[in-house]
Amino acid sequence: MLDTPSEYRIWDTEPDGRWRSPAQTSLAGVSDMQVLPGNDSQMAVVAELDNVKWTFLLDLDSEHIYEALCRAHPLSVPASQWSTLFPHLAHRPSCD
């Protein structure tokens, strides 16, 4: 049995190798996670949700995630809702 923390944190690094703070994201309920050999843009994560173990393959490449989401769900936030969600940004299409 692994003695693991209750929550894993995924960190990003600067080009010089220093860790960026705060953590990029946190994963609760994780029992194991591994960066895939030869592919540092994906991570295999084992988590238990509702007493069922699941294995997830996480894509860590934000550009790839953006492209995949836009292919699957090419929706944009309407201008009428944009200012409520992002009051500090000018309206723009979510997928271009």
Structure description:
The structure is a single chain. This protein is of the alpha+beta class and 96 residues long. The chain folds into two domains: 1-60, no CATH class; 61-96, no CATH class. It is built from two helices and five strands, in the order βββββαα. The strands form two sheets. Strands 3-4-5 form a three-stranded antiparallel beta sheet. Strands 1-2 form a two-stranded antiparallel sheet. A hairpin with a 2-residue loop joins strand 4 and strand 5. The longest helix has 11 residues, at 62-72. It is extended. It starts with 6 loop residues before the first strand and ends in an 11-residue tail after the last helix.
Key terms:
single chain, 2 domains, 3-stranded antiparallel β-sheet, alpha+beta, two-stranded antiparallel sheet
Class by alpha and beta content: alpha+beta
SSE string, helix = H, strand = E?
A: EEEEEHH
If helices are DSSP runs of H or I spanning 4 or more residues, what is the number of helices? 2
Outline the biggest β-sheet: 3 strands, antiparallel
Average pLDDT figure:
77
Share of residues in helices? 10-25%
Radius of gyration: 17 Å
Unreliable spans are none
Topology:
Layout: E1 7-10, E2 25-28, E3 30-36, E4 39-49, E5 52-59, H1 62-72, H2 79-85
Antiparallel strand pairs: 1-2, 3-4, 4-5
Q: Brief description of this entry?
A:
By secondary structure, this protein is α+β, with helices and mostly antiparallel strands. The chain has 2 helices and 5 strands.
